[in-house]
Amino acid sequence: MIVGSVAGGNGGSRIRLRRLGVDTYQEAVVYMHRDCHVCHSEGFEAQSRVEVALNGRTIVATLNVVSGGFVSPDEAGLSEAAWRLLHANDGDVATLRHPPPLESLGHVRAKVYGRRLTPSAFAAIIRDVAAGRYSDLQLAAFVTACAGDHLDLEETVSLTRAMVDVGERMAWGPGMVLDKHSVGGLPGNRTTMLIVPVVAACGLRMPKTSSRAITSPAGTADTMETLAPVALDVPQIKHVVERTGGCIVWGGAVRLSPADDVLIRVERPLDLDSQGQLVASVLSKKAAAGATHVVIDMPVGPTAKVRSAQAAHELGRQLEQVGAALGLQVRVVTTDGLAPVGRGIGPALEARDVLAVLQRHPGAPADLALRSAYLAGPLLELGGAAPAGGGERLAMEVLGDGRAWAKFQEICEAQGGMRQPPVAPHRRAMPAPRSGCVVAIDNRRLARIAKLAGAPQSPSAGVDLHVQTGEFVERGQPLFTLHADSPGELAYAVEYAISQADTVHVTEDA
Amino acid sequence: MIVGSVAGGNGGSRIRLRRLGVDTYQEAVVYMHRDCHVCHSEGFEAQSRVEVALNGRTIVATLNVVSGGFVSPDEAGLSEAAWRLLHANDGDVATLRHPPPLESLGHVRAKVYGRRLTPSAFAAIIRDVAAGRYSDLQLAAFVTACAGDHLDLEETVSLTRAMVDVGERMAWGPGMVLDKHSVGGLPGNRTTMLIVPVVAACGLRMPKTSSRAITSPAGTADTMETLAPVALDVPQIKHVVERTGGCIVWGGAVRLSPADDVLIRVERPLDLDSQGQLVASVLSKKAAAGATHVVIDMPVGPTAKVRSAQAAHELGRQLEQVGAALGLQVRVVTTDGLAPVGRGIGPALEARDVLAVLQRHPGAPADLALRSAYLAGPLLELGGAAPAGGGERLAMEVLGDGRAWAKFQEICEAQGGMRQPPVAPHRRAMPAPRSGCVVAIDNRRLARIAKLAGAPQSPSAGVDLHVQTGEFVERGQPLFTLHADSPGELAYAVEYAISQADTVHVTEDA
């Protein structure tokens, strides 16, 4: 049965919607049966772009034609991304038609041909990108056309501005607003939860939005959430920052530089180096968040995103120049690219490490404290709380005398109340198979074990590492302990950990 | 329930397959429930690339994570493309694991950076493309990196060779093998069915593989199939050509330049001009088909793929030069870009037009005969059957004296027996709404009406056009007749035709 309406023409055809629950990684996909009359009357083909309109909202989705039984001919199934964008409810009747031509693709073609794009060309492209009018293939073409060194400084500024302009922008009134960013997404997550209270304790303002885990066992937002609420809206965030000078919240509730989220999704699997896009991505988020002074942590090393001092220098200069064009003062700090492992892997276990540093426990991970102070230092200098070269030392003092801990508690209370991180009911220690020296720790595998144990969905789940590279261990001494919410998840993680016996590699005796 | 096997590790995890019937336009997609243990144990994330191995066949698919009920946690659903590539049967148990790293993407990145690629770099990329190891995003990046004028002559030769090398190659023994191609996919389909018998009737060899309709109401293979079998395998094709000198068969059963099929799927929606890729696409198919002499029909005009004489000249020169490097003699013929409409739209109706020309009926469409002779001419000259400049005239003679008709019957018999095209049981004439002059005919809409009537799935369905632009008609005189297999399809097409009243536009009286 077709719901109402004449077939074809510009008015489109009406059809009932159904939620299919397919996570297409944010691509809007519409699934229609090959015998669906709307497909025929509108002339949709496999892979057509289809405009779906519902209650004043309009999206463009890619058509997948279905011959199996899970979509019937009188309904249109939607992927999760499409469902969310339309705010649809099961049984809603939407209007489907061909979308208008995507004029801004002409600018993408011009870029492919090596032409420079004007600010208005970038604005047109980014408006369409943020509105979801580009298919994944078209996004990949745009990303590729801008990759390498295909964007000059002016174009990068135009792209960054265009990205800021299509989203929300937080306003903080007069005065400095500090922020930090780590290039390349190396862990370092836990440093944020120490840097913010240090900076805020020195009387500076640092509203920090963070992400949840995408592929890791814990994002900063997941870890912070074991200690305080993080899903705050803009008025709540403002209230917290006004009261305490800082916050550590989840950025998902705030629509900052939404085009960046769309582009990153495509950039990640392509893994093309693109200095212009990296700069636009980082700075558009910071400008939209209302920052005025930004410290950028740039790990340099053979396994980091930035591999040489020369590359770091060039990228750093472009970040500073584009930042200046947007009214942002940017300071780039290169680090050694060796991420601190701390002890815990998983939200609650990582929160425990942070608390240990803040509470000045004797066994707190020193690497985490040092790295946090190293990055907080330049922020304190930029903010005028410390003289040039004196920031790191001040940060260590603030961590060491309890001021950071007091400020952290204050922030947690303002965000909705501090709480104790949960403790996993099921644990298993993995013993050293022999006596010897720990010669290597495979962090990638430890992360996978933590995820098998349930992190980050189970905040208490994860891996607690007891040894460091270079340490001598006795046979039978625990190398790490698995934490899980259920016996099943524990068994699952244990099975995998046993199959990967050299995750923490102890030398054979000679 | 998980089928057998230890979780994780390099051995992969085993899981039951299910056919979902989703046409993703040839992208291999695997749908797994978010609670599926294989996802967890292997560490697959949304949009992971997943290697699926079954009975010695291996494909790489993109993961869509499903939370809805149409895939259960103990099975992996496959898209039609994945199902076909694996030769799977419902309930088969496959092994899933992470695919090995895609080394050839490094060459794509180098191309993005503007470097020239070596023959072995193209070979590595094209091997992976043909094997389905590139995701759609990665394909789009490769296509974009090579678009515009980013490939020089040598690179285009390397790309073409690489594309030929990964597929089948037909061998015809010593002597010339003629072929033709039309750039830009304008209809012109029907000319092939006239050119082949003309050329073969002159003692030359012309084995022609054609495609089925993708978005049109009829491909050459669909039209030919109403007159004779076309789904022949390589030995059968050879037998037909040995006996008659020509054939008109479906190319789908022969795996010529399979990488081209993969790339075209992505190139089409991106619509990037890419001379190098166009040349590689056309010539790789021709070289793989064993052609030695090729005539290329290049329509030039404001609505054609090639828009100016200058562009036609450059593209033509590159086709000839790359052809020469591959041992192909290429001759480019520019045409006016106005596609012949003939009378019929739809497989059987188009076949009827072809037969009318071959059988020299008084009412046969003259434009179809003229255009076929215009393109057959250079083939006859290349093949030495006619002197320079005398090919078109010879072609007209062969069409006019019945030799082409005799040869066409011979070819049909050799392909399995000539038959009568079916006639639709349900028809409806659409009358002129007023007396006046036909000032415009909207071919795109006529094609859509033909598809609504059931073409090409119903070979007899389509539109029979009775008038031409510039003709005077009386009120009530039929402009075109709809043909359909069922009353429902007829009613559907009629409804649409009425809603689009000016598809054949007759002037208002002044």
TrEMBL record, chains A, B:
Top-level enzyme category: transferase
Positions of the Pyrimidine nucleoside phosphorylase C-terminal domain: 437-499
Keyword Repeat: no
GO biological process, one term: pyrimidine nucleoside metabolic process
Gene3D superfamilies (alphabetical): 1.20.970.50, Nucleoside phosphorylase/phosphoribosyltransferase catalytic domain, Pyrimidine nucleoside phosphorylase-like, C-terminal domain
Record InterPro entries: Glycosyl_Trfase_fam3, Glycosyl_Trfase_fam3_N_dom, Glycosyl_Trfase_fam3_N_dom_sf, Nuc_phospho_transferase, PYNP-like_C_sf, PYNP_C, Pyrmidine_PPase_CS, Thym_Pase_Put
Coiled coil: none
Pfam family, one: Glycos_transf_3
Domain of life from the UniProt record: Bacteria
GO cellular component, one term: cytosol
GO MF annotations, alphabetized: 1,4-alpha-oligoglucan phosphorylase activity; thymidine phosphorylase activity
Keyword line: Glycosyltransferase, Transferase
EC identifiers of the protein: 2.4.2.4
Transmembrane segments: none
Catalysed reactions listed for this entry: thymidine + phosphate = 2-deoxy-alpha-D-ribose 1-phosphate + thymine
Family: Belongs to the thymidine/pyrimidine-nucleoside phosphorylase family. Type 2 subfamily.
Protein name (Swiss-Prot/TrEMBL): Putative thymidine phosphorylase
The organism's taxonomic lineage, starting at the top: Bacteria, Pseudomonadati, Pseudomonadota, Betaproteobacteria, Burkholderiales
